[in-house]
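Hello,

Our lab assistant flagged a job as stuck in the queue for most of the afternoon. It eventually completed. Since we weren't sure the result was trustworthy after the delay, we are filing this so someone can double-check. Below is the sequence as submitted and the structure that was eventually returned. Let us know if re-running is recommended.
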Amino acid sequence: MSGEVGNLALNRQLGPGRARAALRSSGSATGTDGLGVNPDIMTPTNAIIDKNSSSKIQVLSFGIDTLVLNVYGELSENLLLLSEMAKEDAQSSPIRADLSPLPPFLGNNLLMQPKGAKGVGGYEFLARSDDLTVQWKKPTRFKVPPMVVQLSSQCLWRLGDGGWAAVAALLPWLREVFAGSCEVRVSHFHQCADFQGWIPALADLGGIVKRADALDIYDTNGDEYQDVGLEYRLARGDALQGVAAGRSNRLRASIYDKTKEIRRSGKEWFRDVWAQASGYDSALPVWRAEGQYGRELLHKHRIETLDDLRVQQDALWRYLLAWFSWRERQPTDLGHPQRWPMMPAWSALWSARPVSGPLPAARVIAPKLLRLAQQADGCLGSFMAITGETDPAAALERLRGIVRREKGTAAMREVLEKKRARYASVASKLPSASRESLAVVAESRRVRGKGLRAARLRREQWDAPRL
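-- returned structure --
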């Protein structure tokens, strides 16, 4: 394979930033300056076992590792008043463990924190125990949940049933806090599987197939591979600590050495969880494959409640393993990495859960007319500035002529029909004057000025055509 094709493959697998770092690697690894890493030598290592012996790969545990819930309901005035007093007491005496006005959870009191929680919503009150973290606030006019609850990893794993026993214990506690009436929504959660039988290595990176743009690679010290080329690290014998890709507010996949992570975090109790699995070898390292599912992804696939999550949990897991997969790289078919066979470890992770149906179809959300008008107005303004046109209607007609000439009327009609079918649910809400020049409409409805009043007028103007 030529060097150019190899570089393109490396760019696709590692992302542009990692690829450039690899191409800047030291010549001591290749004997020639500037050649960088050759993807053809990146054959899977499978350091523990024969890669063809997938039966020796042992999945030790599977379950929810983090769960954050938005809780909607009305908090009593008495609870809010007691929260104010408890927060003041915590600021003057933060060592007291019985300051929280919330009821105990699993027999443990929640410790009131002297400061609230930062972030979206600005929660005034914060309380913690080993099992639970709770944020809550006074009612506001903004549509944010009055309470956010997070179950700890230790609680989820200690009670068993993949984390669902902890959820079952939490629901009656929430009903007690909200006097029996509340609505629970899933904000985000992590689920993971721990396994033995395969140690991913730097040389295995060529087999990663992902939909995310970038790949984060970490060594045994937790440092990213950014400043030193990949081939140089291979020649030096550096070990791999983990890789990750994606965004936590949507979907993020990671695989890392859990044995080393629990030494740093002090979560040695995980060994008791693994010991419950037959075939666990305490002398071998345990690696973890983990998915972080954000609110954006969950809402997109209609996973709102805990019941939705329980039904779709396995479908989410398989979606993750297809979205980010580790495969046996085939140099003869670099153009279709999704066809490469899965690594035995990935096949074991895939088979660890029952076969389930696909996720619910993603929501189709039609773009807002305001945003479309703003985009069209901006594009038309740039076109007029370049061509010297002064009349928006004439500029728009000229622009349409260029598009028709370059794309063809039939192709434009086909695209239009597809979009009409896609946004059929909102077609009846479009204004009858939609064929007008968007630039003219935008100019006639533009509200000048700053401040809340001007913003409100802009919103009213753009909402007016909607039925």
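-- support follow-up --
The delay was a queue issue, not a problem with the job. The result is valid. The first helix runs from residue 3 to 23. The first strand starts at residue 58 and ends at 72.
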